[in-house]
């Protein structure tokens, strides 16, 4: 049975005057924490902030009670651009009516102190690393956190009629659309299926039907591979994709449907065939030679992960900074301006950009890119790939969110894993994901999410898989991808579909996952999830709690997870299970009105979930049940706050 615990998460339910998205340096913000009366109750509460490196304690006042919770509020000065804080709770134990002789009823027996941070509740001191945090940085555009993202690998999405007239490049192995993808070896990067941008334009109705708001395209520049992360120029769109005009037309058509379009940019490296690198290699005295890291005799150079085709940029070069970022017609700037009008960038290997050995220019480069992007379009989005612990680099100061796998994708794979020893588990030496229980999923998720501000958490990409990973359908138990999609859409963050997820496509690694879309081959559709994704996309538009509400975990044990997204006006409860499971949700964790709402049918479900009106005899609550891998989403009344 879920146990109610003190709670704060940094959302607008707990941060006000001003709202968490509009904090400025020097503001005094009001921070709230709710404490279940049956847990303590707390006798005193303080907010502990770190101001100019020094801890400070400000006493909270008790606002009042609502639905079995005591609400406390404290004022905190935002003294630094990243304002860290936690709560210190005092619980006083007193003598009851059976007090020993000489001891007055109500006299103090003892006190205990608890720290509440973004990782959880601790009866001990904890590191500042997982403290809650408010930031004074410019907020990301609202469309990003409210959107549903769809990732397209252009070579494998759709071919237009004009693609038939394109010659096969000399580096490529021509493949028919229904030919199997090779997942390993040199041919993995050279198979050429000929998908193009007009082909994507012709499928925008499909994206609309799925509820997509953001189209994210992997690189579009000419290259010598099908993935195009080895650009040979940044000045034009690959003619094989239709050229510059095809991008103009795709973006215009997407915008007409209310869909934003984001590009993918390699700020860490170019391709070895890039015009800059060709000149740099030929002329050690050239300006371009300074764009890269060459040995003293110019006979070797640094590259991404030792891959010779991906020479690494040297960001100490002022000329590179101008040409790539700050010039009027720089790489970063040009494609955000008309006539192309991209709505933002995803920066490839953002975590590695500007870093080599003792050199660390990562945040300098990120700041330059962010300033340039926002100077062109303050409503543009800027995300960065950071595959491991992204929080130290993604504060919201420059990158607004991360394409990361550590806080959701990896633990979700492990919770929903089947025996899939042949899959690539994010480059680790493990023979596939290690199967874990719900409690370890939650511990990992909270551990790796705690370092983000609430604003950044809402902008991080929630992906079941991407073009760089195995497919969820290969990794997870039968029914697992549908359950995982519910979590990706309902937890804080931007849900991401990689093209083909809606058809249940499989793949044991990133290359194997880049399967051509089965538009005209219904026999290749493994599991038609289009209706499920469309419903989840609609729910994010219909239930504001899913795109802005706080998150409170009610249960995480073994085979089942339960959490609630909360606003004062409305809430949403999510129940997910990987096998047969039952969870009692009682009046200690939800209000009576919310418990009653659980008796209605879920707004979305997969598998088989039920919620009877009552729990077992003698229990004041609702019993959620699942048969096999299942999930449900219920719309609930909002959370009452005293004084509101």
Could you please describe the fold and organization of this structure?
This protein has 644 residues and is α/β, with parallel strands linked by helices. The protein is 20% helix and 26% strand. It is built from 16 helices and 28 strands. Residues 151-540 form the Glycosyl hydrolase family 13 catalytic domain. This is Alpha-glucosidase. GO terms for molecular function: alpha-1,4-glucosidase activity. InterPro entries: GH, GH13_cat_dom, Glyco_hydro_13_lg-like_dom.
Q: Secondary-structure blueprint of this entry?
A:
Layout: E1 15-16, E2 28-36, E3 42-51, E4 54-59, E5 61-66, E6 69-77, E7 82-94, E8 108-117, E9 120-122, E10 132-135, H1 142-146, E11 149-152, E12 173-174, E13 191-192, H2 197-201, H3 204-209, E14 214-217, H4 243-256, E15 260-265, H5 275-282, H6 318-326, H7 331-334, E16 344-347, E17 355-356, E18 359-360, H8 362-376, E19 381-385, E20 401-403, H9 409-415, H10 438-449, H11 454-459, E21 461-463, H12 472-475, H13 480-490, E22 494-498, H14 530-542, H15 545-548, E23 550-557, E24 560-566, E25 570-577, E26 581-586, H16 592-597, E27 604-610, E28 621-637
